[in-house]
Design goal:
Helix content: over 70%
Largest sheet: none
Strand content: under 5%
Oligomer: single chain
Structural class: mainly alpha
Number of strands: 0
Number of helices: 10
Radius of gyration: 32 Å
Distance between the termini: 75 Å
Low-confidence stretches: 3-13, 15-28, 35-41
């Protein structure tokens, strides 16, 4: 090996050792500062070189001892009744009750949208685009309820379904027209649902449930705000077109927005 290669190897070795040396010096300075602060609190006590060295206890406190720390959890798991969740973890009862209430809200709104679908699909109403769109919205709300059911089971809660209120079945309105009246009803329900989700999010934050808050924000609140914006635009457009030919054209455009049903 020539002198140039030897010099290059020496430089590289020193460069690799430098970060480790800096870390060691940093840790030493930190321990020294702690000792000096303690000495300042006791002016009459001299500081010895041994006091300046890092204590062994500070290093040992960082050690993770899973078998020792898991003993309490092991006792709880082994003594859990067979009719209770084994995986429930930091899930407050108020959060559990709130999720069950929101499941009922989503299913109730789905029920109303299905009634709107049935009304728009009548031969004397003749709004197939509205009928298909309401059916799609009903399915979407039911999917939201299923998301909440899955979340409830994942967190160790108990799903409790409530009785659904029977919705109205007649939505004719001679003053506004059937189409505008139904879409204004949908907008009211979407805004109410957003408000209910916000209240549920407040409950999650109240109990410092970060996972529940993140779930609500990403899976429900964000899509809900987009739905409110979408339906608000539909209401504005229906107010412009009136009750005649404009509704017929709007119905065709609405039908084009509905995804085609999956092939059997």
């Amino acid at each position: 090996m020539n002198s140039t290669s030897t010099m290059r190897s020496t430089v590289m070795s020193q460069a690799c050792m430098a970060p480790c040396m800096r870390v060691g010096r940093t840790a030493g300075r930190a321990a020294g500062r702690q000792t000096i602060v303690a000495a300042m609190a006791q002016p009459g006590k001299p500081v010895s070189p041994a006091d300046m060295a890092p204590s062994a206890g500070a290093t040992q406190s960082l050690n993770f001892e899973p078998f020792q720390e898991v003993k309490d959890e092991l006792v709880q798991v082994s003594q859990a009744p067979v009719n209770e969740s084994y995986g429930r973890l930091d899930y407050h009862e108020e959060c559990e009750e709130g999720v069950n209430e929101q499941i009922n809200i989503e299913l109730t709104i789905s029920y109303v949208y299905h009634a709107l679908h049935a009304f728009a699909d009548r031969d004397n109403v003749g709004l197939p685009g509205f009928a298909a769109w309401f059916k799609n919205e009903s399915d979407e709300e039911r999917n939201h309820a299923q998301l909440l059911v899955d979340f409830q089971n994942k967190r160790g809660g108990r799903v409790k379904l409530h009785t659904l209120v029977s919705p109205e079945t007649e939505f004719a309105n001679d003053v506004k027209g059937d189409a505008l009246y139904m879409m204004e009803l949908v907008l009211s329900l979407e805004k109410l649902n957003f408000h209910k989700l916000r209240l549920l999010h407040d409950i999650a934050c109240k109990h410092d449930d970060a996972e529940m808050a993140d779930f609500l924000e990403g899976q429900l609140l964000a899509p809900q705000s987009r739905s409110v914006k979408e339906v608000a635009e539909y209401v504005s457009q229906l107010r412009r077109v009136g009750k005649g030919l404009g509704v017929y054209e709007f119905d065709k455009q609405l039908a084009a927005l509905v995804p085609a049903p999956a092939a059997a």
